[in-house]
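G., before I forget:
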Amino acid sequence: MAAAYPAGYKYTKDHEWIDLAGDRGKVGITDYAQQQLGDVVYVELPEIGAKLKQGQSFGTIESVKAVSELYSPVTGEVVEVNAPLKDKPETVNSDPHGSWMISIKLTNPGEAGALLDAKQYQDLIK
Amino acid sequence: MEQATEAPLKKTPLNARHRASGAKMVPFGGWDMPVEYSGIVQEHTAVRTRAGIFDVSHMGEIEIAGKDALAAVQRISSNDASKLQVGQAQYSGLLTPQGTFVDDLLVYRLAPAHFLLVVNAGDIAGDYAWIAEHIKPAGDAVAVDASSRYALLAIQGPAAQSVLQPLTGVDLDSIKYYWFAHGEVANVRATISRTGYTGEDGFEIFVPPQSADRVWLALLDAGKSADVVPSGLGARDTLRLEASMRLYGNDIDSTTTALEADLNWIVGWKKDDFIGASALRAQKASGVTRRIVGFEMLDRGIARHGYEAYVGDAKAGVVTSGTQTPFLKKALGMAYLPIEYTAPDTEFDVDIRGRRTRARVVPMPFYKRPK
């Protein structure tokens, strides 16, 4: 069953989403990405304080079959990590758009404007 | 498109059925195969607790017949086929003169001088050419690539017998492990074999290709009340890994001998000369310097095929299979290590994308079904 793509989120071509609130945003992977991966069994996340450039890898996600990198949609600093997700990585499959991985404080909030909106992203994966 | 210059993928007789059922399809060994239907974890769990149904028609079937068929099989197959009665099967290796693997296979004795060899899908034509060439000295025996005459379905899991029994007149109780019988399934001519690649009780069913879909649907229908699910190659791989069965191309290949793969039991030490015999006898006498082990991860992380193993700072070996196993819920794998590090409880490191991650040698099989 396909999850809806929240209209308030921004999306990347690498199949991450970011839910922005002020100069912060929570980041996860899209329903399309989790469908491609299959059963998620492992999530590796960065430390709080890690500094990321837009497009830089911030961790890995593994399904039974494959390993994928997680890429930061924006430049900034990791201010929060969803640690409980490590113990129940399968929620990425059951609730992809609710399963945030990191919260990032944006260095350059203007970057987010150039990301895809929900409609553009859904056109991309058609 | 990256596929454009390659040969088109081969299709089993059930290809349209898989696609119509919404299975996720992937290229595998030159075949267009279902990797999963409902999800690897769900299918894996179904096979361990109920049953799953697999299309394994991509496997190759090579028949050897003729007055000297036994001598021919004995020459190219490492196990001792003279121990097989008609109606019995055995696991074996197709070995090079160095004792390494051309392929692994099941050998079925259909009649005193008629054998069926079931080989991996990746290089059926290569296996056939190897066999046809190397049985020549054995005398009066001919090999035929009969793959196009067979579809092969598997039903695996504790409920396999109760689901299959109503579809056949063959008394399944009378088929012991690694034996087979001829009969019919869903009114289709079939050979029913009590074999599999999952570590569970179950059956592999050879049927004519044109009837494969009918048998597939009959199995699904018969399994409905037991919640039997169609399953793909993804679950097949995780199931065989939990059961510690070697996968050709991962755990065994042309660089690993049967002894290094810890498969001494498929070497017919007492029989006459066979391809690879002298190399294996020499290696047995001098002792292997490396051997496959099973391991579990102690640190968080999943070791996978191709990752390097370290003892201290020295590269010691390589992981050949590994994943997070759905039923045992542990990160498990197989690796080749120097013989001095192969004892259970020995610890070593796996390089997981640049991070040294602790692992421990554990006995195989990881999973053994309750009797």
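DSSP finds eight helices and 19 strands in chain B. Chain B touches chain A at residues 24, 35-36, 39-42, 234, 238, 300-302, 304, 323-324, 326, 353 (CB under 8 Å).

More on Monday.
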